[in-house]
Amino acid sequence: MLIRLVSFIPSDNNLILHLPGGSVTPPLGMTSSAACVWGRFLVLFCLILRRVKSYRKELWFEAPTRRALINITPQVTACLGESGVREGLALVNAMHITASVFINDDESGLHQDYDRWLEKLAPHEPTSQYLHNRTGEDNADAHMKRQIMGRGVVVAITGGKLDFGPWEQIFYGEFDGRRRKRVLVKIIGE
Amino acid sequence: MLIRLVSFIPSDNNLILHLPGGSVTPPLGMTSSAACVWGRFLVLFCLILRRVKSYRKELWFEAPTRRALINITPQVTACLGESGVREGLALVNAMHITASVFINDDESGLHQDYDRWLEKLAPHEPTSQYLHNRTGEDNADAHMKRQIMGRGVVVAITGGKLDFGPWEQIFYGEFDGRRRKRVLVKIIGE
Amino acid sequence: MLIRLVSFIPSDNNLILHLPGGSVTPPLGMTSSAACVWGRFLVLFCLILRRVKSYRKELWFEAPTRRALINITPQVTACLGESGVREGLALVNAMHITASVFINDDESGLHQDYDRWLEKLAPHEPTSQYLHNRTGEDNADAHMKRQIMGRGVVVAITGGKLDFGPWEQIFYGEFDGRRRKRVLVKIIGE
Q: ipTM higher than 0.95?
């Protein structure tokens, strides 16, 4: 049961304690029996006190169209597995200001509804209606759409899983695609 | 002053250290005086190093109407008390994709304004205007309304309290009610 | 390399271990050589186990106009430096329910676009269109605008820096200004 946390290997001349973050040796000049006690202390404390873990990964996407919704739940789930975090929070956010990460339903009709609805609230055309587009961009509407859908989500992690209700799925919402863009996954916990 | 963290009880034949996560005994064969020192180590380290705490609870609601706003600040405050977390973050989110958790004012006129405003931005009727409703649902508008109001909130915890400004209150926003639905409260910190 | 974590100073008669949270002395009656071992334990554990850090600060703003967007990235970056957190999450949120904290582009044309767009979605006038304004307020529209732009953001901290994409900047969005209002910065991590 200790294997996941530490392995305690008494070798011929000295004791080395292998911990997730590296190896440590007992203080110099410590007798063998004292070093054994020392090792037990370390094992105990590692069990008693759980340390903060953190994990970071970038997910890359290139939508072939200006606007797209991509279900990224499998990638985020894989990140959580790599992180080893059992209890904590996962932040998943677009690293670009014309894109969104949000949680909703994986239903194609709804996705088309979202697209029409966002176009009604913040139409792409005429592009001249936005001052931002005078900078040479044509994506001012994408900056609006992303505010409605949100920059990102924070998801609870419980028992090593994304703590979701029945239909929750994580989406990358692209509003100015046709180029490589990133999503950040940051996980902290224990 | 140690009582909240640990209780150190020397019994007749052995020493048992009672910690929040369980009890531990000294290494076998350790002399009584050495065990006393061992116990002091544990107490010290528990004081010096604060461990990550995590807490999870589901709150259930059944709004009698299609749409409703429910002040859930008292329930979240109770969760925080149960968690014992003094410094950290609380995530409170709807576990359903047709509902919201958000922070705003507990003023009934404003709540009616929100309802009218959301109906204007994403009207419930005609239900046939949404492709999603071809699946047999009639709640596509609720998926839109929830995106405007947000899936959930992250609240700072300071000194064991929700770290709020003068009028901040947490609401469950129901946009497709008349059935039992859940809110997740996840707290991490120390 | 230990200096940032602890300083271990053997003085004439006793050993005192200086830790970030205060100082501790060895158990009474411990021999000098045992106290040396005791000190090494503490140092080791402080290295092995990283403790949760938390930081809190309020930023104050007084916009001279009803509506304003203020780039607060420099202040949040300064907070992060003060916190000493290397890996974790920063929550930055408006403490008032007629204001917002969000992440987008620092481009003046876009800021004017946001203002026009929010006025279209939730116009300030006529103020009589909102029931909330019957309480004597005239800021119901600000409560709507803030919901679209969001209460706050959670930002990843990696290597002691705000983990941002190429154009991300943090803004305080004021929708009912001309008075002193606050933003909360809460950082947790290690």
A: no
From chain C, pick out residues whose CB is under 8 angstroms from the CB of A94: 165
> Hey, are the CB atoms on A154 and B97 less than 8 Å from each other?
no
The dotted CATH code for B53-189 is: 2.60.120.460
CA-based nearest residue in chain A for residue C52? A52
Is the confidence at residue C101, as pLDDT, over 50?
yes
Tell me the mean pLDDT in the region A68-94. Answer: 97
Chains touching A, CB cut-off 8 Å, 3+ pairs: B, C
For C185, phi then psi, to 5°, come to: -115, 115
> Which is it for strands C53-61 and C68-71: parallel, antiparallel or unpaired?
unpaired
Look at A40 and A72; give whichever has higher pLDDT.
A72
- Write out the two tokens for A163: 């703590």
Task: Give dist(CA C145, CA C147) in Å, integer.
Answer: 5
CA A61 – CA A99 distance, rounded (Å)? 11
Beta-bridged to residue B124, according to DSSP, are: none
Residue C131 half-sphere exposure toward CB, CA atoms < 13 A: 11
Domain boundaries, chain C: 4-51, 53-189
Contact across the interface for C89 and B89, Cβ inside 8 Å: yes
**Encoded amino acid at A73, one letter:** T
Report the residue from B121, B149, B165 with minimal CB separation from C95. Answer: B165
- Which of B86, B114, B117 best tests the C interface by mutation, with the highest count of C CBs <10 A? B117
Residue pair C188/C88 in contact (Cβ under 8 Å)? The answer is yes
CB-based contact A169:A106 (threshold 8 Å): yes
Q: Are B181 and B100 in contact (CB under 8 A)?
A: no
CA distance A106 to A69: 9
Token duo for residue A89: 């929070």
Omega of the bond prior to B126 within 30 degrees of 0, cis? yes
B52 secondary structure, DSSP code = P
Nearest residue to B139 via CA among A70, A104, C149: A104
Query: Cβ atoms within 10 A of the Cβ of B34, count?
Result: 14
- Give the strand order in the sheet containing C22-24: C7-10, C15-19, C22-24
Give the span between the Cα atoms of B67 and B119, in whole angstroms.
10
- pLDDT tens, B10-65? 443 344 444 444 445 555 666 666 766 666 666 566 555 556 889 999 999 999 99
Cβ distance C186 to B166 less than 8 Å, yes or no, reads no
b/e map A73-104, b = 16+ CB within 10 Å: bebbeebbeebebbbbbbbbbbbbbbbbbbbb
Residue A22 scores a pLDDT above 80: no
Q: Lowest-pLDDT range, B54-68, B135-149, C41-55?
A: C41-55
Question: How far apart are the C-alpha atoms of A26 and A16, rounded to whole Å?
Answer: 7
CA distances from C30 to B27, B65, C10, C21, C164 (A): 20, 70, 14, 23, 51
Indicate the pTM of the whole model.
0.82
Cβ B114–C38 below 8 Å, yes or no? Answer: no
pLDDT score, position A52? 80
Question: What's the rounded Cα separation, in Å, for the pair C36 and C87?
Answer: 32
Predicted pLDDT of residue C52: 80
